[in-house]
Structure formats: structure tokens, C-alpha cells
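Hello,

Our lab assistant flagged a job as stuck in the queue for most of the afternoon. It eventually completed. Since we weren't sure the result was trustworthy after the delay, we are filing this so someone can double-check. Below is the sequence as submitted and the structure that was eventually returned. Let us know if re-running is recommended.
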Amino acid sequence: MRFACLATALTVWILSLGAATAFEIEGERHYPAPEGAVTLRIISTADINVFEPIILEFQRQNPGVGIDYVIASSTELMRAIYEEQEPFDLAISSAMDLQTKLANDGFALAYSSFATEALPDWAKWRNQIFAFTQEPAVLVISEADFAGMEPPKTREELISLLRENPDRFAGRIGTYDVRISGAGYLFATQDSRNSDSYWRLTEVMGRLHARLYGGSGDMIRDVASGRLALAYNVVGSYAMSRLPDYPGIRIILFEDYVNVMLRTVLVPVNAPHPSEAGLMVDSLATLDSRPALTERTSLPPVKASGLQENSAARPIRLGPGLLVFLDRLKKQSFLQNWTSSMEQFVR
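-- returned structure --
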């Protein structure tokens, strides 16, 4: 009987270890502080090369705080916080809808400070989600592939261009796989709200055997290498940050409309160090006051007047409206339509 109990206990322990590491991470980096100091655990969708200057500046101002920075996709971040309730101090994501669901379902602490109060009303929700960047979804093209050809200014022009040049673009279009990318799903659902042309564009990309990606970084790299001629709905800040390394790429902001995503931060309800997490929230909320830092990261900070500078900008609003496409049946229907359009021509 004693051995049976021991075996049962061992099985439960092993299963608990498996559950604790079930969500997948893409990378991790530790930024130490003096021995005995508080260490903040951050789970984030932002690439480390983009976010590291923010971490180093934060530690310069708060030398007694260490950082464990874990990189995961937006869907894996959701799994870590929502399903597994992993004790992270901060969750940073480009998937505004998933962040909204976390807050709406009771997985985020309320927080308020002078820094968060100074944010525009549209850049926060219920004092639980705080935006610190406003980033457009863009088209990235290879200048070599568009030599002698006028790049498209609208989605209608892109559709026509692809239809008229199938040999040039077949197998050389990149876009998100919205079944695995939270940011990709967000951009796609907003596209479907903004224009009827989205589904025609999706069908054309499917007909030309578009390559599907989980993140913007890989798409940008493949445009720069010549594997892709263009990539659709790339996060603009990532493209801007790669321009010095990839001089052969070009960023196109469409003139019909530009989806503008707000990168957000929240403090999970089970955060081990909520007070210190608030310091990071304040640091992010005041990103606009440090232009040298925003230049190093290529992250466009939240500005009250920023969305008025481009008449084509369509800011994605925080709030319960983002939960519509997370409804189980609504999401299932959207993904079925997307898969049908994108994959019906698979060879």
C-alpha cells in the first residue's frame, strides 16, 4: 500500500512538472540584479532585440530589480496565463484581443499611477490593460522584385497586381497563419471589418500558394533574402528595426486604411511582485518622454495626437468589442472561411 501511494504521488508530481512547462517559449534571457533583489518575470511577444533597450534603461533607473524575460507567441502567452496560471509579473503582447480577454475574465490586477492616468483614454482599459506603443500593420516588399513596377497603394491595387502577375508572385507571398498567431488573427479580423476586399485578397494569396508564418520577423527575413517578394500585415515596428540590416526591403503603408495595433501590458492577478511590476508599467507608459529610447527600439510610443497624423489610420480600440471574434463559434467560422480561402488551392 505504501508503494502504491508513493507511485501515485510520484505520478502526480511528474504530471505537475509537465503542466508547469506545457506552454512553449521561443527564448529567454536573464538580466541579473544584486543578490537578494527582486526579480520580475516577464512573458512577452516582443523580440529581445527590440525590447532589450527598455529593460536596460529600466534597470538603470531601478538597479535593485532583476528581470527574467521570456519570449512566447501570443497564443502561448495566453496559455501560460489563462490556462496554466504561471506566476509572471507582467504580460506584454501585441494581441490586444487576447489581453482584453485576460482582463475581462479576471486574470489581471487593477493598477493606477500618475503615469497611467496621463495615458489617453483610448490607450487603457479598466485600469488593467495599458498601451505603450501604436504600431501599424504594413506591407513589406523586396525592392529587387518590384524594380520597374509601381508598388500597390491600396489592397485593391495589390489584388490586381497579384492577379496580373501570377508567375512572378506564386509561392513568394508571405502572411500570418492566423490559426497560430494571435497578432495575425487580430489583424485579419480587423481587415474583415474594414473592407470587403480582404476575403478576395485572401483567396488570391491562397491561389498563389502564399507561405504562412507565425511571426513578423521570419517574414521580413525572407523578403530580405529574396525568398519572398512581399509580406502582408507585418508589424511595422519590426520592419523599421530591420531596415539597417536589410537595405533591400521597403515598407508600404496602404492609403485605403492602415490597421494600428496597440502593444499592451498587464499585471497578472497572481503576480509575485505587483509593486515592482507597477514600476515597469510606469516606465512603459512614459515611453513617449524618452525619444532616444524609442529610436533605439523602433517602437512608436503612444501619443495623444499620433493617430491624427495619418488619415488612413484605423486604430484598433481596446475594450469588449475585441471579444467578438474570440467567441468560440465566431472564431470557428472565421477560421473555416480563412482556411477555405487560403488553402483550397494547395498543391
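-- support follow-up --
The delay was a queue issue, not a problem with the job. The result is valid. Residues 2-20 form the longest helix (19 residues). Residues 1-20 have pLDDT under 50 and may be disordered.
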